[in-house]
Amino acid sequence: MQxxxxxxxxxxxxxxxxxxxxxxxIALLLNLGMFFIEVFGGAHIGSTSLWADALDFLGDSINYxxxxxxxxxxxxxxxxxxxxxxxxxxLFALIVLGKVLWSYFYGIPPDAITMGIIGLMxxxxxxxxxxxxxxxxxxxxxxxxxWLCSRNDAIGNLAIMLAALGxxxxxxxxxxxxxxxxxxxxxxxxxxxxxxxxxxERHSEHTLQKIQGD
Length: 214
Description:
This is Putative Cation efflux system protein. The chain has one domain (14-213). Helices cover 84% and strands 0% of the residues. The chain is built from six helices and no strands. Helix 2 (48-70) packs antiparallel against helix 3 (75-106), helix 2 (48-70) packs parallel to helix 6 and helix 3 (75-106) packs antiparallel against helix 6. 47% of the residues are buried.
């Protein structure tokens, strides 16, 4: 894996940018579709993990839109966009933690079968997104951020399916809350990684531009 801020002072090759944009559009359409499915499905059955995942799908959709328009920018501005995305992911993770706390006191066990079906749909969508974005996982902070989004979502949806089995077997809300907490942790972890790399790339590019301007 290449180190951030060391080998990314130039824009990605045009052929790579074109392929990355196609991959982003595929991921965007999949994420928007799953957002609407999970936001209504999760609210209807009272699943904290599905509701959290719906917010995450929305955040990823916004991130993909931003990434599409950031492709033609310089490394400094791509890193700036990635910084915004990292902060956004962190914010969503905090929202999930708040929802977990609320559900601990007021929530009821969700419908396990519906939860599992929607979780499977989300898993399929995220696996496809992760596969089309896999080739760009070692790119700059902007490219790495969209790969991390899809990777974390695929892991999250697999956990949702396991939680659905737990809810079905125990008739307890705890499996749903545990998965939601795990998703929040993954979001915070990815947000930290993206934020740190984007800050390094911004500093590196700013230093290079300053040297070239002297």
